[in-house]
Amino acid sequence: MNNVHLAIQFFIQLAVILLFCRLVGAIALRLGQPQVVAEMLAGVLLGPSLFGLVWPEAQHWLFPWDSSQKMRDTQSYLFPASQLGLALYMFVVGMEFRVDIVRRKLTSSIAVSVAGMLTPFVLGAGLAWILFDRTTLFPRTTSLSEAMLFLGASMCITAFPMLARIIHFKKLAGTTMGTVALGAGAIDDATAWCLLAVVLASFEKNWSHAVVNIAGGVAYVALTLLIVRPLLLRAKAWFAKNGTLTEAGLVVGLALMALGAWFTDLIGLHAVFGAFVMGAAMPRGVVVRDLVGRIQPLTVALLLPLFFT
Predict the structure, then answer these.
(1) What is d(CA 88, CA 70) in angstroms, rounded to the nearest whole number?
(2) Torsions phi, psi of 197, nearest 5?
(3) Rounded Cα–Cα distance for residues 144 and 300 (Å)
(4) For residues 120 and 207, what is the distance between their CA atoms, to the nearest angstrom?
């Protein structure tokens, strides 16, 4: 496909995904399910599991893919667009995150996070212990301890963006329960990704990636909250004039979000953490109010369904 054909394909895919998500969402709402569940279900229905099974020619025409990589397929442009939507959404979640509640309820957040990690880790490790000698799921070079660590760490990872959307759907954003859940989810996910990096490093006998992953994550959080945040507070008057956010303020906010997502993706922590932490660093008041007001509607309606489908 050339660029013109890619654009044509993208627009028809976008229309189908958005309309189908709304259709499934209307049914899901009657069953008390949030829109995010409908979007994930829509992805399954539009994929090879149903659409591709019932009408494979039409599914391949609408969502072409090429396993030989001789041509650019659907993933080559839908994936970056979906990651942009995810990063923007987590940026908004970070801006709405109540840091003051987390400070007061830090013990509760840590307790929930530890409980949310310990149980799936033990169950995952136990499952690996059962499957190790009874199946060929693990490579021959993998030891039992490595298999248990890998499966345990994998089971610890939380669907952080999905958790955030469910909290918004239940109107728990900004409440003590919602904030503690988000704080625990953030701690849980960051810890689990670092643990997974350690496990993979032990597989490869190369610890440099794990060091970069963990040290880079800690350095990013410290830099963002201790240096970037105070600088943004000082520049708040430049970002907001006459009670509204300036265009320059909007561009700077989006650029910082992109830089945060880029860095955490680069070190292997995933873009959601960079965008979320950068959102938490944004100056409260007019800046956050207008950034959320301008970013959230289009992100949730247009870009985020691409990620979940």
Answers:
(1) 31
(2) -65, -40
(3) 43
(4) 25
Element containing residue 240 per DSSP (H, E): strand 240-241
Question: Residue 274 in contact with residue 262, Cβ under 8 Å?
Answer: yes
Query: Do the beta carbons of residue 45 and residue 20 sit within 8 Å?
Result: yes
Q: State the Cα–Cα distance between residues 267 and 32, nearest whole angstrom.
A: 38
Query: Which residues of the chain are modeled with pLDDT < 70?
Result: 1, 66-72
DSSP per residue over 105-160, as a string?
A: THHHHHHHHHHHHHHHHHHHHHHHHHHHTT-S-S-TT--HHHHHHHHHHHHH---H
Q: Return the SS3 of 241.
A: strand
User: What does the pLDDT look like over 88-141, one tens digit per residue?
Assistant: 999 999 999 988 888 888 888 888 888 888 999 999 999 999 999 999 888 888
Up-side HSE of residue 276: CA atoms within 13 Å toward CB? 24
Residue of 42, 29, 12, 27 whose CA lies nearest to 308: 42
- Predicted local confidence at residue 108, as pLDDT: 84
Beta carbons within 8 Å of 40's beta carbon, 6+ residues apart = 162, 308, 309
Half-sphere exposure of 182 (CA within 13 A, CB side): 30
Helix, strand, coil percentages in the chain from 3-state DSSP, rounded to 5: 80, 0, 20
Name the residue with tokens 């829509």.
42
Place of tokens 């569940």: 37
Residue count of the chain, please give it. 309
Tokens of 182: 């988000």
pTM for the structure as a whole:
0.88
pLDDT (tens digit per residue) in 245-260? 999 999 999 999 999 9
Report in angstroms the alpha-carbon separations of 282 from 76, 229, 236, 244.
32, 7, 9, 15
Bridge partners (DSSP) of residue 241 are 244
CB 248 within 8 A of CB 239: yes
